[in-house]
Amino acid sequence: MKHIEKELVSEETIEQGLNVTLHANTLKKDGSYYARVNSRVANVKAALKLIKDEDKGVDISAIKHGLELYNRQVLNLLTLGFSVKVLDLGILTIKHRGKVKDKSEAESISDFTVEFIPSADVTKAVEKLSVDAVLTVDNSPVLEGISDLSRKASDGFVTVGQPIQVLGRNLKLNLEEDEIFFVPQTEQGDAKDKSEWVKVLEPQVFRNKPTELNLFVPPALPPDNRYRLLVKSSYIAGGRARKTVLSGTSEEFIAQAETV
User: Fold this and answer.
1) Edge to edge, what strands does the sheet with 112-118 contain?
2) Which H helix or E strand runs over 52?
3) Backbone dihedral region of 161: left (phi > 0), alpha (psi from -120 to 50 degrees) or beta?
4) 6-42 burial: b if 16+ Cβ within 10 Å, else e
5) Do 232 and 213 touch, CB atoms closer than 8 A?
6) CA nearest neighbour of 10 among 52, 33, 38, 40
7) Of 142, 114, 112, 117, which Cα lies nearest the Cα of 256?
């Protein structure tokens, strides 16, 4: 279970603070904004340090081993078809993503995913957080949401070879110069090897507006992987371009193969 060792917020950098970025709500022309939380991720080491600070006599190695065993059995219970209550934090609930056409497909239903439903204690823990800093909003592309047009769904999945809709602001492209990439995600973030990035070709973009891009997911995109959509735009207005290309990325989503 080596993945629980990944150090995102280390035991040396635990400090209180929450940053948000304000973005204009382009879907409602009322001058309102929405806040995107720039959240940090605390790993197991950070939690173990807090445990050790609270109880100097605790056996950290034993707790770590217990967590590894617990993590393994949670995954095992999911594979057996159980939704799992994770301590007092919430429930990992098994959900079905797609639609069932008719009863004849009942025995071959697949395409499941997991949704985390937080407990009241978890919700209460963040209710009274105060914002430490509000980051400046610039003219970079902002990708507010991605919908799979072939399935008419906005569930965090896109279908390879099928059209998607991207909503946001500052999205319009100078198609001959600007670029869009599907960037594979690793536990460390964007894949560092840019040869793994899949570029969207100009003919694959069929709607190009400041608040909306419609494009086809490249047929060569490897399915069953996590991606972010990266938009690089130099467009200002009236066909004019800025000297500096600005970039924006989407939330993570998963590419799935087209079902026949």
Assistant:
1) 84-86, 90-96, 112-118
2) helix 44-54
3) left
4) eeebebeeeeeeeebbebbebeeeeeeeeeeeeeeeb
5) no
6) 40
7) 112
Query: Contact at 8 Å (CB) between 95 and 112?
Result: yes
Spatial contact of 232 and 203, defined as CB atoms under 8 Å apart: no
| Whether the predicted pLDDT of 80 surpasses 70 | yes
pTM of the prediction?
0.54
Residue with tokens 């970025």: 21
93 vs 95: CA distance, rounded Å:
6
**In 59-200, which ranges are continuous DSSP H helix?**
60-79, 120-127
Give the distance, in angstroms, between the CA of residue 184 and the centroid of all CA atoms in the same chain: 12
Q: What residues contact 259, with CB distance under 8 A and at least 6 apart?
A: 98, 111
- pLDDT digits over 198-215, tens only? 999 999 999 999 999 999
- With CA atoms as reference, report the closest residue to 230 among 188, 196, 203: 196
Residue type, 77: L
Q: Tell me the β-bridge partners of 168.
A: 143
State how far the alpha carbon of 62 is from the alpha carbons of 12, 13, 49, 66, 69, in Å.
21, 24, 14, 6, 11
